[in-house]
Amino acid sequence: MSQKSILEIKDLVLNLGEKRILDHLSLEIWPGHIHAVVGPNGAGKSTLANTIMGLKGYLDFDGDILFTKKTVKEFSVDERARQGITMAWQEPARYEGLTVRSFIRAGADDKSEQNCRHALELVGLDPKTYLSRAVDRTLSGGERKRIELASILTMEPKLVLMDEPDSGIDVEALEKIFDAIQYLKNKGTTILLITHSTTVLEKADHAFLICCGQLIEKGSVDKIMQYFGQKCIPCDHKNEPKTE
């Protein structure tokens, strides 16, 4: 493993039912950077994030996942979280009866009121309005996404996986999310963005293009951005689109 990598995916193979989703996928994530994983629908992007996080149903794979040079292959979600890995979901969960204040405090080292308020302000939510609200169906998906990100800010994790961070978010709120992502980076957190959005990709320092669970290309954002202009970069992969 490279000395500069915080996370290394080594020859990852994962099948869901009869279908191979990740197919000998290998990539390295550098510490303190914002990385993006892009690709068409069904490429395996979210599956990769779920496997890194160790979610149920994504533990039976070949290959290895190294975090800070140590395997986490046999670790549960909680064990990976204790190592410093966390995830912001495309569709955040609801917690009936749990207030926003309690939700943010749950994973925070600093559980002070000031810290909770600061985290909400960073994601563009008024603490007076939200701290006492329940994390339930009365909140929109975008509000829950920002509250989830506020809780992550207070955790100060080593690695954050963000699945479609712009999903269900308006333009103004998305700018606040980008501000929070930059705040995490400035604090030394490594971020892995799972996205099909050029707007999100532009915020990354480095990117990977995957298709059918395989790494097709990696490099600068400008290089990978070609995928969005051409729908797929020129390659010999079986998913290369047919030309008219």
Write the layout of secondary structure elements.
Blueprint: E1 7-16, E2 19-29, E3 34-38, H1 45-53, E4 61-67, E5 70-71, H2 77-83, E6 85-88, E7 95-99, H3 100-106, H4 113-122, H5 127-130, E8 134-135, H6 141-155, E9 159-163, H7 171-186, E10 190-194, H8 198-201, E11 206-211, E12 214-219, H9 221-230
Parallel strand pairs: 3-10, 3-11, 6-9, 9-10
Antiparallel strand pairs: 1-2, 1-4, 4-5, 7-8, 11-12
Summarize the structure.
By secondary structure, this protein is of the alpha/beta class. The chain has helices at residues 45-53, 77-83, 100-106, 113-122, 127-130, 141-155, 171-186, 198-201, 221-230; strands at 7-16, 19-29, 34-38, 61-67, 70-71, 85-88, 95-99, 134-135, 159-163, 190-194, 206-211, 214-219. The N and C termini lie far apart (43 Å).
Q: What features would you describe in this structure?
A:
- α4 crosses α6 and α6 (141-155) runs parallel beside α7.
- It contains 9 helices and 12 strands.
- It is globular.
- The protein starts with 6 loop residues before the first strand and ends in a 14-residue tail after the last helix.
- 34% of the residues lie in helices and 28% in strands.
- It has 244 residues and is an alpha/beta fold.
- The strands form 3 sheets. It has a 6-stranded mixed sheet with strand order 6-9-10-3-11-12, sandwiched between helices. Strands 2-1-4-5 form a 4-stranded antiparallel sheet, with helices on one face. A two-stranded antiparallel ribbon has the order 7-8.
- 37% of the residues are buried.
